[in-house]
Amino acid sequence: MTLQELGEDRLVEKLTRGLHRSHIVIAGPGDDCAVLRATDSSNLLLLKTDCIVEAVHFDREARTGAVGWKAMARPLSDFAAMSGVPEFALVTLIAPGKTPQRWVTGLYRGLQKAADMFSVVIVGGETSSTAGPAIVSVSVSGWAEPNRWLSRTGGKSGDEIFVTGRLGGSRAGHHLRFVPRIAESRWLTAHFNVHAMIDLSDGLGADLPRLARASGLDYELEETAVPRNRACSIEQAISDGEDYELLFAIAPGESERLQQRWRRQFPKLPLTRIGRLISNPKTAKRRLRGGYVHFT
Amino acid sequence: MTLQELGEDRLVEKLTRGLHRSHIVIAGPGDDCAVLRATDSSNLLLLKTDCIVEAVHFDREARTGAVGWKAMARPLSDFAAMSGVPEFALVTLIAPGKTPQRWVTGLYRGLQKAADMFSVVIVGGETSSTAGPAIVSVSVSGWAEPNRWLSRTGGKSGDEIFVTGRLGGSRAGHHLRFVPRIAESRWLTAHFNVHAMIDLSDGLGADLPRLARASGLDYELEETAVPRNRACSIEQAISDGEDYELLFAIAPGESERLQQRWRRQFPKLPLTRIGRLISNPKTAKRRLRGGYVHFT
To answer: What span, in angstroms and rounded, lies between the C-alpha atoms of A121 and B184?
Structure first.
């Protein structure tokens, strides 16, 4: 059965029947807005929206569950970047009327699986038809403690730059099944004074300069130190993008203790020092080659 | 200049430079998430997302400012439906790389104008390219008092049904310049015990049955009483959709006082009694002809 045959009311009913509920959701899908218990007002409200477009962020042939996973995991990776805690998600599906219902069902299974992993509740959304490619947009709200959230702007000259995981080659599959580094990010800010952080979505070549610029600094990168996925060149590790690993800056004095404790806490996930932030206004506009360029 | 020539970083920089700031926005566009002061935690958090698709919700020839206005006003109309107060918006723009930059600039002017009218702050968003039609998706967060928010579910048997404004013929222009009934909705819940409310987006023929069903009731509609826009038939007033007027249910005892006070408060906006809610489980599945059907 296609979406056109099913109609919107029945589609929404089918999709929302399978969603998990929570006692903090007072009115969820099916009403005009989602109504939720607000976070403790001593916390900050965090909002993020992100979308994936067929033929840009996923192929028509990709497993639909993996497409749903990716659509949810991308904005959650931004929460990781800020050391925030995601709570609620709204899902917008824009798809042609001829889309098979089972594609949508699979998509929602993937969305729900990623949401469940981080105790995020899907509280509503929107559907629309289109004559173009399918699009899944996910908006997430959550919170962070005022003294704990991180941005890209706090880096200091001399800070060492660390990256989690291995980079490059994401298009082979990682981009559809990565795990947002929320647990790692929350652990970092619970135990260390991290100065600035970003998640690597457009690739080290785009995101490292962004973090440095946002902090008003330049950077030195030890290219050979960049941790690479199997069969990836340094160039690929820097340029491919969609790694969804954490990149952060921390005072050099914390470096040793961080690496020791990290190995005990996350023995399966590498943490690698790949460079440092430096003050050098003359070269502050220098750019790494590569990184994903939008609107091509 | 097209979006492709401009590139995403410069596009985001241009768009966000013009946005209005607020002291409750701690980190806005340009960071991974928007960071905001949370509402008083005695209030409820309201979330809504909505999207408009070229050739479905607007024509390529429509004035871009009006397209932006509509994209923002639609989710705000859902806040009106629940008597909530919108606060923050995230804007997602999905457009082909060949889109002229001035189209996007005009779009943002319209988005900002609608946001300003209701003191809503645009705190972030997302851009992506597409091979298909342009899409603008807006997610809004806000709040409502626990004893004041309204849903579709609270209607009681015998309630009178009122509608604001005049219905039908929206495609002639109203759908691009309607004003979300937030002021009217907040006034209603400040002074009257409204039982259930919805905004008319898909047309009376779809939304009145929705409100009745959500309240577990049936309805009687006095078709000839339906306030119509000039040159509209009853059929059109019921079926056209995109009226973005309020439809609500209130105890018959409140009816007279409501109409008197409404005329003094909103002398330019008609308020019309068009029917009532009834208990009649046998006909509860009866449907009005018309109303907008999605995925056609």
So the answer is: 31
Q: What is the mean pLDDT of each run of 10 residues along chain A (296 residues)?
A: 77 68 66 75 89 91 94 96 93 93 92 95 89 95 91 95 96 92 98 96 95 95 95 94 97 97 97 94 52 50
- Chain B, residues 81-140, CB within 8 A of chain A, namely 81-82, 84, 88, 90, 92, 94, 97, 123-133, 135, 137, 139
Cβ contact (<8 Å) for A56 and B129? yes
- Domain holding B279, by residue range, is 160-283
CA A144, CA A150: separation in Å to the nearest integer?
Answer: 9
Size of the A and B interface in Cβ pairs below 8 Å: 240
* Shared-domain flag, residues A136 and A182: no
Q: For the whole model, what pTM was predicted?
A: 0.88
Interstrand relation of A135-144 and A85-95 (parallel, antiparallel or unpaired): antiparallel
How many of the other CB atoms lie within 10 Å of CB of A51?
27
**Residues pairing with B36 in the sheet:** A45, B25
Using the 8-state DSSP alphabet, how is residue A58 labeled? B
Angstrom distance (rounded) from CA A211 to CA A155: 8
User: What single-letter DSSP state applies at residue B291?
Assistant: -
* Residue in chain B nearest A90 by alpha carbon: B49
Q: Tell me, yes or no, whether B23 and B137 share the same domain.
A: yes
Q: Which CATH number characterizes residue A277's domain?
A: 3.90.650.10
- Count of helices and strands (H, E) across chain B: 9, 11
| B37, B92, B143 ranked by CB distance to A137: nearest | B92
CB contact under 8 A, A46 and B31: no
Q: Are residues B105 and B230 in the same domain?
A: no
CATH of the domain at B22: 3.30.1330.10
Sheet with B135-144, strands from edge to edge, namely A25-27, A34-37, B44-53, B135-144, B85-95, B121-129
d(Cα A151, Cα A199) in Å, to the nearest integer? 10
The answer to whether A130 contacts B53, with C-beta atoms less than 8 Å apart, is yes
Q: State the total domains in chain B.
A: 2
Q: Nearest 5°: CA angle at A250, between A249 and A254?
A: 155
* A165 and A140 fall within a common domain: no
Is there a contact between A32 and B124 if contact means CB atoms under 8 Å apart?
Answer: no
Contacts of A135 in chain B (CB under 8 A): 94, 130, 135
CB contact under 8 A, B82 and A35: yes
